[in-house]
């Protein structure tokens, strides 16, 4: 004969079920690098139209210009030293424009602790930014770019790791 659940057990189980969707959303939102095509660095620039300065990482929605072009000086830009072995000059040399024509892209930046280590000023809507990073394989799904480098106010910030 089975015993009925106590009120406390039933409430705890119900609470766990209610929390699951929030947990699942957080787990999906904080994904690793494996979903991104790291063999095809993409360059975007434009105006920040929305900014979410929060963990698990800062994000912004970038509105790119209609006629996006690679900057003439991109391959020669000075890059900061990072603690991770990121091949910066090769990434700049391999940079391409996205194939897709989306005007708005979600840009995933670094966690706030790393943004603070780089002393990145909090980006405000209307700020002009450039980013070099990776999107999903075959550019499928949402227009998302995971930033490797952030170009802001004449400076370059590394997003993959902390300053060396």
Oligomer: single chain
Percent range for β-strand residues: 25-35%
Average pLDDT figure: 85
Tell me, briefly, the overall form.
Answer: globular
Attribute tags:
25% strand; 6 strands; 164 residues; alpha+beta
Structure description:
By secondary structure, the chain is of the alpha+beta class. The chain contains 3 helices and 6 strands. The chain has a 5-stranded mixed β-barrel. A hairpin with a 6-residue loop joins strand 1 and strand 2. The radius of gyration is 20 Å and the shape is globular. The model is unreliable at 9-30 (pLDDT under 50).
Lay out the secondary structure.
Elements (H helix, E strand, L loop, with lengths): L6 H23 L12 E11 L6 E5 L24 H7 L9 E5 L3 H6 L10 E7 L9 E9 L2 E4 L6
Parallel strand pairs: 3-5
Antiparallel strand pairs: 1-2, 1-4, 2-3, 4-5, 5-6
Quickly describe the structure:
It holds the Pfam family DUF6152. This protein is 22% helix and 25% strand.
């Amino acid at each position: 004969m089975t015993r009925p659940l106590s009120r406390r057990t039933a409430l705890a189980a119900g609470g766990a079920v209610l929390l699951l969707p929030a947990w699942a959303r957080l787990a999906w939102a904080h994904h690793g690098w494996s979903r991104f095509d790291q063999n095809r660095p993409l360059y975007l620039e434009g105006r920040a139209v929305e900014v979410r300065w929060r963990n698990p990482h800062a994000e912004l929605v970038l509105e790119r210009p209609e006629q996006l072009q690679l900057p003439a000086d991109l391959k020669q830009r000075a890059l900061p030293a990072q603690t991770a072995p990121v091949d910066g000059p090769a990434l700049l040399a391999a940079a391409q424009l996205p194939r897709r024509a989306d005007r708005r892209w979600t840009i995933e930046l670094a966690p706030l602790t790393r943004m603070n280590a780089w002393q990145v000023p909090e980006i405000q809507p209307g700020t002009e930014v450039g980013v070099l990073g990776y999107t999903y394989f075959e550019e499928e799904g949402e227009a998302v770019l995971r930033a490797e480098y952030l170009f802001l106010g004449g400076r370059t910030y590394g997003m993959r790791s902390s300053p060396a």
